[in-house]
Design a protein that fits this description.
The chain has 14 helices and 13 strands. It has helices spanning 15-18, 21-30, 43-49, 65-70, 90-96, 108-123, 126-135, 163-172, 184-189, 201-206, 227-232, 250-258, 301-316, 328-331; strands at residues 5-9, 32-35, 53-58, 76-79, 99-102, 155-159, 178-182, 196-198, 210-213, 237-241, 262-266, 286-288, 324-325.
Amino acid sequence: MSKPRLIMDQHFRQVEELFRPSAFRSLGELCDIEGGVNWPMPREDFLAHLPNAEFVVAAQPELDRQELDRATNLRAVIEVSGTFQAGLDYDACFERGIEVLSCAPGFRQSVAEMALGLMIAGGRGIVDEHERFRTGSERWFNDNIGTDFSLYGQRIGFVGFGSIAQECAKLLAPFAPRIEAFDPWLSASGASFEGVTFRNLEQVVTGNRLVIVAATPTEENYQLVSRSLIEKMRAGTLVVVISRSHLVDFDALVAAANEGRIRLASDVFPDEPVSRRADLRQAENVIWSPHRAAAVEGGRHPIGDMILHDVQAILSGETRRKLQAASLETVRKIIRAPLVAG
């Protein structure tokens, strides 16, 4: 009996980046893999394999209705960039019963860990004092009243409370913080999380000492954290941007940090890579990380584990998925240009 076919056009991702060797071997035992090499699959080869494929794994899957009509065996399309991509006819997939799955949950642990590191470094002024030490201006035994703060019992706000924010909340639990979150999708659904209170956006952004921006970017939430909201932030607020700069007025955040009103830590930027001449390289009261929240050894291997699990589940008729399943509500809010995640 022949095995199901899986097209793997995961480039720009590397196979070794997504899969631990044992997981990739197991996937190969389960499916005949077409592709799975560390360079782009020619489009003509991709389309030639499509009529016999049951699964497509791609960094940026692009299939229109006519192409999907040829994919009579297709059961699932799995994206491995980190967010649902423009270029796929979602309506046709839903009509045909083709599952569309995103690897976004696979970033949860590594990105949350980086977020926690930025919170601690920013809250305790670790980078500031390190730079002062280089110039001999370090402040010995100084409490840095008004700038540094502890996470213990702290007021913490999340803009977006999806999988990464929820993982952050788990890591923060030993600090017993008071957590507020703005997430209209979750609050409208009636979802609840122990120790988390849903508030409106202004309450979350202006009422907390630490604000983490973790929402998924959509066409509707461009610069959701606006200049006017930034101007209303309490003095000494630490803002950690861990999802996308799309969510914030980045220039206004940098200006507020330069003025000493807030601290800012960010793993993402409006233009990447950042120009060597960019003014933000000289900004004060900031911690910059070059989009590397998931860039740790094995940091993306949970994605391969989730792909293996979900392919096995689909083939065996099980309904539980570890990857994120697309819905009409989510995909109709996606930005109409590809985004690349960590």
